Structure formats: C-alpha cells, structure tokens
Amino acid sequence: KTPILEVNQLHTHFFTKAGVVKAVDGVSFAISPGETLGIVGESGSGKSITAMSIMNLIPSPPGKIVDGEILFKGEDLLKKSEKQMRKIRGKEISMIFQDPMTSLNPVFTVEKQMVETILVHERMNKKQAKERAVELLDLVGIPEARGRLKNYPHEFSGGMRQRVMIAMALACNPEVLIADEPTTALDVTIQAQILDLLARLQKELGMAIIMITHDLGVVAEVCDRVMVMYAGKPVEYTEKNTLFELPKHPYTVGLMNSIPRIASKQEKLAAIEGLPPDLRALPGGCSFAPRCSHAMESCLSHDPAWTEQAANHHVRCLLYEEDAEKVVSE
Ligand code: SF4
Ligand code: MG
To answer: Per-residue pLDDT tens for 95-133?
Structure first.
C-alpha cells in the first residue's frame, strides 16, 4: 500500500528563555488508507506536538518545525503556505481532541457550527449543508439527529458531545483523522462505544487514523501499528501484535506491565517509577536511563541509535545495538 501520510525525521523545537525544548526530536512514520497507527507515551512525550506539527498548528514563536518532511499524498506540507494549509486542514486531514469543547463553540447551536464547517469546504447551499449535518449526526449514532440540530453543545452528554465533534471532523470526508486522546475523559463504557464508532467509520470511509493515547488498552483495541514515544523521541515502532507479544524497549515493557489497570482519567502511567525528564535539561545518553532498570554505564554517555531490530521492528536502546555486549562489558 502507498502511504497517504509519511513523516520523515520531524524535529519540532520550542525556543524558551530557559532553553531549547526538543519536543519532537526525530519522529518518522508512515500510514496508509484504512490503517490505524497508535502513538503512545506519557504527557510531554511529544505525541500531541507531533500531531500539531502535521496540522501545521505549532504556535510560533516559541515553537518551530526545524527539520523534517511531512508528505501528504507525496507533497510536503511543510512547504505549503498558510492559505494552502487551510484548505487541507479539516477537509483532508482532520483532528479530534479529548475535550470536545476545544472544537465546539458553546454559544452556537450544533446546526450553526456544522453548517458553517461544511460551507467552508464544500460547494453547497445552506439547505444542502443542513441535510449533510443531519446525515453526519446520524452516521455517528446520535438518535433523532434532525431534532438535535438546534441544541447547544452543553445540551449533549459527554459521550454524545464527543460524537458531535467526530461528526464535525468528518464533515468533509477527511483522508486522515488524527484523534488526540479522544476517549480519555469518558467513562469506560462510553469510551468503548466511541472506539467502536471510530472503527466502524474507518471501515465505511476508509480513512487513515492516527490514534494518540497514553492507554495501551486503546491501542490493543484499535491500532494496527504502534509508535511508542519517550521524551520527544520514538523508542519503539512495530506492528501492534509484535509490540504486545515481543516488546523490546524497557519503557514499552514497563507500559505493558502497567496493564491491566483501572482506566484512569489522568494522563499518567503510574506503574513506571519516576517522572518523565525535563526536556530543557535532558541527561546525556539515553533519556530513559534514570528510570530504566536495565540501565548500564554506557547508557549515561551513549545516545542509543534508532535501529531496525527485526523486519518492521524499530527500537532505540543500547541493549539491542550490535555492539551492546561489548559496551556492557567495557
Ligand atoms: Fe535502558 Fe540503556 Fe536501553 Fe536506555 S539504552 S532504555 S537506559 S537499557
Ligand atoms: Mg497530549
């Protein structure tokens, strides 16, 4: 399959008074139509910044994409003007968030917001756009969709509001949907319903989905492939089944050991001791070393390389580098 979106060596930095924060530091992945890629990591690992970079929504200054390529249908989005990006955003690449209120305006009815979104991108009159809005609300499983058009966002339950946001994101049949922790704020039952909905919509519409999450339960449910991130860098990238059966990176292994656990509303993976590092003052060598139970002397001075350990299985850890044994015994 030809990828619809290909990210190559993306580097997004924030230039703060306290120093340069390498929020995204060398991220590469590719995704094909109909496929779901999970990006997993703790808060601050760079997964949301990766998503914002793809949308070209990094606040600048202080943020800046300093290097890399984001190829959408073979064209580099980083070379597009803001005007060109506005045509792509929301129409060809859409994004949904943990909090629907990020994309829904509390003072307008759902009809007004949906019709407006549709009219920005599609050649339709108001009446056609309203019919399309009903269709979309129906598609995402809102009962008696037509009757709910005049409702305000707060008149929907949390789960239904999430459905409205998904309907808005799908208004123009995007080819890529980026979902940033879309179910984190919901209780477990509703969470499962929303994940089922996304899987069904993907089957019907054939879009590629990038699922950003801190929850490996979500990954297990919906993803085909997974990239695990730590401190701005990908540390492991492979098929979902391989990741669950043969995790290689000590951080991934730690994440695995932290499930099953009670669904937590906080973006936190408590089972791994210690905290994510301060990105302004990263230690030399492997960023995970202070929390890693396998850390060796060399981990403090050698930055592990991103290597393909097996077919389609990348990992960044000295334990798996060719000369690891030599390094250990030094
Ligand atoms: Fe742990 Fe060393 Fe591997 Fe980093 S490089 S994850 S510290 S073993
Ligand atoms: Mg986030």
So the answer is: 998 887 778 999 999 999 999 999 988 899 999 999 999
For residue 195, give the H/E element and its range: helix 188-205
Quote the CA–CA distance of 69 and 190 in Å, as a whole number. Answer: 37
* ipTM score over 0.90, yes or no: yes
Distance CA 130, CA 277 (A): 48
Q: pLDDT grade, residue 260 (50/70/90)?
A: low
Can you give the pLDDT at residue 321? Answer: 84
**Rounded to the nearest whole angstrom, what is the distance from the C-alpha of residue 259 to the centroid of ligand 1?**
21
The residue written with tokens 């009446």 in the block is 127
Best mutation site among 229, 297, 299 for ligand 1, i.e. most ligand atoms within 8 A of its Cβ?
A: 299
Residue intervals in the chain for CATH 3.40.50.300: 5-92+177-276
What topology does CATH give the domain 5-92+177-276?
Rossmann fold (3.40.50)
Atom of ligand 1 nearest to the CA of 250: 6
- Residues with Cβ within 6 A of ligand 1? 250, 286, 288-289, 292, 294-296, 299, 304, 317-319
Q: Which atom of ligand 1 is nearest to the CA of 294?
A: 8
